[in-house]
Amino acid sequence: MLCVNWPLADETSIKEEMKSRLKSGSACYHLMQNILSYTLLSKNLEINIPRTIILPVVLCGPETWSVTLMKERRLRMFENRVLRRIFGPKRDKVTGEWRKLHNEELNGLYSSFNIVWVIKSRIIRWAWHVACMGEKRGVYRFLVGKPEEKRPLGRPRCRWEDNIQMDLQEVRCGGMDWIELAQDRDR
3 pairs with which residues across the strands? Predict the structure, then answer.
């Protein structure tokens, strides 16, 4: 087994990267605000504008992120905030007052995949691509290598590979050796 002594990406640097991506996406949305508030645009077009302009700004290079529940919640909050601004408030049938749309209502109106699902699918696709690489490639050695340093006491942090295993279980492909399966292109 190879021992790799490369510096790992710190969790705080990934958190800062995600925070700056969300900030850039928010700035991009505010630039598009005038176009989205135009009354002659259909809702379908209003939904496609954030999907094609804002989400690529937020989703630039998320393949190396380790998506925790806290990060998932922040990403969903950003997406729901954009969708609430697009769909606007809803009039309550009972009281007649205007209210914000609930998350379930937003999911029903927005037929595309949510931002967390897109990130996880990109992570799985990138991991599959790395697993197909040869053993001499540095990225592959980083994937299968074990760090030389001892881990601190307490609960061990999840590795990138552990997150991939959990993502594969979410899409019901868990319980298999995905690296071996990726390397066997015939299967």
Answer: 146
Nearest residue to 64 via CA among 181, 143, 179: 143
Q: 3-class SS at 74?
A: helix
CA proximity to 50, closest of 33, 72, 73, 74: 33
Reported as a single tens digit per residue, the pLDDT across 164-177 is 888 888 776 766 77
What is the C-alpha end-to-end distance of the chain, expressed in Å? 25
Over range 88-98, report the average pLDDT.
86
H or E element at residue 167? helix 160-170
Residue type, position 185, single letter? R
Tell me which residue of 61, 53, 116 sits closest to 86, measured CA to CA.
Answer: 53
Taking CA atoms, 6 is separated from 48, 61, 148, in Å, by 41, 20, 9
Cβ-contact 79, 46 below 8 angstroms: no
Nearest Cα neighbor of 144 from 159, 155, 156 is 159
Query: What residue type is 36 in one-letter code?
Result: L
Q: What is the pTM of this model?
A: 0.77
Count how many residues are written for the chain.
Answer: 187
